[in-house]
Amino acid sequence: MINKAIFDKESPIFMGSRREIGNCSIGIFGVNYDRTCSFKPGARFGPDSIRKVSPCLETYCPKLGKDLEDINYVDLGSLNLNSLESIDVINNVRLATNYLIKNNLSPLMLGGEHSITRGAIEALVDKYPNLILIQLDAHADLRSSYMGNKNSHACTMQRCLEILPEKKILQVGIRSGTKEEFKLMHDNNQLINFRSGENGQEFAKAISPYKNNPIYLTIDLDWFDPSLLSGTGTPEPGGFFWNDFEIILEELKTFNIVASDIVELSPEIDSSGVSSIVAAKVLRSLIMTVNNMQ
Ligand code: MN
Ligand code: MN
Question: Which of 30, 129, 160, 209 fits a 20 to 30 Å CA distance from 117?
C-alpha cells in the first residue's frame, strides 16, 4: 500500500514556477494517467505539453489585470500513474492533494483523464466540508458505471457527488450525455444553461447562493469547441470559445475557488499545438483566480 505521493521532478516546468514550496500559495502538479479513456488515449502527455508550450505566453493578463510575476506558485512535477489500477490512481491523487493542503498550497492539478478529480475531492472535503463543485465539460460524467468501471472518466462527477457532504455540483453548458444523465441534471437543478456567445447572467444567478462556499472548479477541456481545442480524447461539436471562458472567470473572480483542475488534454491529437497553448492559458488564468479570497 502506497502512503506517499511521489512527484517526478524531471518534467519540464510551467512558466515562472518555483521548484521549491518556499512562500508559495499555489501548487501545480501533473497526473500522467489515461487508462480508462474510452476513445483516444494520450491525456497522460497533457501536463508536460502544457509546461513545454507555456513560455510562449506573456506573464501579464490584460483581462484579469494580473501578472504571474506578482504571484508565488510552485510546480511540484508529475505523478506517473499509468501502470496503476484506477483505484490506486485515485489514492495517489488524494495523497498528493493532502500533501499540498498540509503545505498551505491551493492545488491546481493537470490531467490526465477526468477520473482523477475524485482523488482531489476526497482530500479537500476534510478541510472544506461545505465544498461545492463547478464543472466545465462537454459531457455530464454522471454514469454510475461505464464499460464495467465505476472509476471511469464517464462516472467521475457521480463519484465526486457521493463524497461531497453538500451534494452540490453546478454543470456549465453540458451538451452531451445519456437521457438519464440529462434527467438527473434537470431533476437536481444541476445544469446551468449557458451557450457560446451568451452573457453570464444565468451563470451568475446560479452561483449567487454559494458566495460563502469554498469552490472546486474542474475544467474538462472538451468543454471548448473542437475548432479551438481539438487535442482531446472525446471532442464534441457545439462547444465554447475563449470569450465564453472569460465570462465564466469574470463571474467567479469574487468567489472562493480553493482548488481546480484542467483535464483531458491529449496533445498529440492536435499537431498544430494550439490545444496545449489554450490549456496553458487556462492554467495561467487559474493561477490568477484561485486563492483570491485569502
Ligand atoms: Mn468531457
Ligand atoms: Mn469529463
Answer: 209
Q: What pLDDT is stored for residue 35 in this prediction?
A: 86
What is the residue whose three cell numbers read 499540498?
A: 100
C-alpha cell at 239: 462547444
Which one, of 236, 157, 170, lies nearest residue 200 by Cα? 170
* Ligand closest in space to the Cα of 135: 2
CA of 69 to the centre of ligand 1 (A): 32
The ligand that comes nearest to the alpha carbon of residue 236 is 1
d(CA 50, CA 255): 26
Question: For position 37, what pLDDT does the model report?
Answer: 65
Q: Are 68 and 59 in contact (CB under 8 A)?
A: yes
Q: How far is the CA of 135 from the centre of ligand 1 (A)?
A: 10
Ligand nearest to the Cα of 218, by number:
2
- Nearest to 112, CA basis, from 88, 78, 73: 78
Å from CA of 107 to ligand 1 middle: 21
Residues contacting 208, CB < 8 A, separation 6+: none
The dihedral built from the CA positions of residue 66, 270, 233 and 88, taken in this order, carries a sign that is negative
Cα 111 to averaged position of ligand 1 atoms, centre (Å) = 12
**Average pLDDT, consecutive stretches of 10 residues, N- to C-terminus, the chain (294 residues):** 82 95 97 81 94 98 96 97 91 97 97 96 97 98 91 92 96 97 96 96 96 97 98 97 97 96 97 98 97 64
